[in-house]
From TrEMBL:
SUPFAM superfamilies: Sigma2 domain of RNA polymerase sigma factors, Sigma3 and sigma4 domains of RNA polymerase sigma factors, TPR-like. Belongs to the sigma-70 factor family. ECF subfamily. Gene3D superfamilies: 1.10.1740.10, Tetratricopeptide repeat domain, Winged helix-like DNA-binding domain superfamily/Winged helix DNA-binding domain. InterPro entries: DUF6596, RNA_pol_sigma70_r2, RNA_pol_sigma70_r4_t2, RNA_pol_sigma_r2, RNA_pol_sigma_r3/r4-like, TPR-like_helical_dom_sf, WH-like_DNA-bd_sf. The keyword Transcription regulation applies. This is RNA polymerase, sigma subunit, ECF family. Keywords: Sigma factor, Transcription, Transcription regulation. Residues 77-102 are annotated as: Disordered. Residues 180-280 form the DUF6596 domain.
Length: 410
């Protein structure tokens, strides 16, 4: 096996086995810190040994066994702790780790632990990316535009809080599962959105690594919970959105709106998979949740060969459903954008202006308002709205687009 083949095997093992290894060690030792450090050491050992020894027949088993021994060595070095539970665990030094099947709920337990509501939302995102996704602290820090030391401290405090608060390492009970699962999905959606339209001015406008990681983790959740409609809906939403990414930013670094995108460059395979998931949920006859409706809206958009062929009446009808589930001002704003295509900009503007108090600091509100005012010929008001949107926007591609549109008013 060549050096390139070995490197690819290590990369694949990290992608596929990191969460399994961390989950297995967390179950055995009850300590996220021990699990994380031992898993990292095991992969470092693989990097050193596999080029010479060859890739083992069962990479996941090799990594779990190596990580278990690393964890035991660490606990032994910590001077025969008074913690009798850890001492008892060391007695089983030579026991082989439990085999990890294709679907093992230890990873699910790990995800629910990282996304526990006792942790702050930003912390849940960071901890999930580290413990489940296997991203390094520098990678997570770069993704969310904070210092590496700050992100490291945030993750360390989160693990300490889990230990101090005795947050259980388990899947929630049946009655708690819907609420807790919604928190997990919200974390994954946040990760995806940050990748699809980065909020910081000092980073790439689109972060494919983050969108890919969010999709991978959502696929994992779907593997573990194949019958949950909202998991399927979120995955479909991500796939249909990610399919448009190649047309999202122009060669000059400017955002390209949906109506102006080259639909021939969209990823047809992702669209087909997303449409299939949407159809499956419709065929189930179950009442759709928020992510399923959002996925259905994106299915309508990606079904149109040309922006002019979009079935806006269907989009508005879907938003009407969504508003009943989620009457947030952002949903009302997005519905108004669809209404503008169906009933005209004046009707939509009347709706949007009522949202000012709640969305005054939201750049998309001012960008939408600027476009509607432009279409109505109210140039001065449109320019002021573009100025406000540019001030609030942090995405470089979006800022470039808004600046061009404002300058065209001249």
């Amino acid at each position: 096996m060549s050096a390139i083949d070995v490197q690819e095997a290590i990369t694949r093992a990290h992608r596929e086995e990191w969460a399994r290894v961390v989950a297995a060690l967390t179950k055995r030792f009850g300590d996220l810190d021990v699990a994380e450090e031992a898993a990292a050491e095991a992969f470092a050992t693989a990097v050193a040994r596999w080029p010479a020894d060859g890739v083992p027949p069962n990479p996941g088993g090799w990594l779990t066994t190596t990580a278990t021994h690393k964890a035991i060595d660490r606990l032994r070095r910590e001077n025969k702790r008074h913690d009798k539970q850890k001492e008892a665990l060391l007695v089983h030094d030579d026991d082989p780790p439990e085999p990890a099947g294709p679907i093992d709920d230890e990873r699910l337990r790990l995800i629910f632990t990282c996304c526990h509501p006792a942790l702050a939302p930003r912390t849940r995102v960071a901890l999930t990316l580290r413990m489940v996704g296997g991203l390094t602290v520098p990678e997570i820090a770069r993704a969310f535009l904070v210092r590496e030391t700050t992100m490291g401290q945030r993750i360390t405090r989160a693990k300490a809080k889990i230990k101090a608060a005795r947050i259980p390492y388990r899947v929630p009970s049946a009655e708690d599962l819907p609420t807790r699962l919604s928190g997990v999905l919200a974390v994954l959606f946040l990760v995806f959105n940050e990748g699809y339209l980065a909020t910081g001015p000092d980073t790439d406008p689109v972060r494919p690594a983050l969108t890919a990681e969010a999709i991978r983790l959502t696929r994992l959740i779907r593997t573990l919970l194949p019958d949950d409609g909202e998991v399927a809906g979120l995955l479909a939403l991500m796939l249909l959105t990610e399919a448009r990414r190649p047309a999202r930013v122009s060669s000059t670094g400017e955002l390209v709106t949906l109506s102006e995108q080259d639909r021939g460059s969209w990823d047809a395979s992702l669209i087909a998979e997303g449409h299939r998931l949407v159809r499956e949920r419709l065929a189930s006859g179950a009442a759709p949740g928020r992510y399923q409706i959002l996925a259905a809206i994106n299915a309508v958009h990606t079904s149109a060969r040309d922006a002019r062929d979009t079935d806006w009446s269907q989009v508005v009808a879907l938003y009407d459903q969504l508003v009943r589930l989620d009457p947030s001002p952002v949903i009302a704003l997005n519905r108004a954008i669809a209404v503008a295509e169906l009933d005209g900009p004046e009707v939509a503007l009347a709706t949007i202006d009522r949202l000012n108090d709640e969305l005054a600091e939201y750049h998309a509100y001012h960008a939408t308002r600027a476009d509607l005012l432009r279409r109505l010929g109210r140039t001065q008001d449109s320019r002021a709205a573009y100025d406000k949107a540019i001030t609030l926007s942090g995405n470089t591609a979006e800022t470039a687009y808004l600046t061009r549109r404002r300058n065209q008013l001249n």
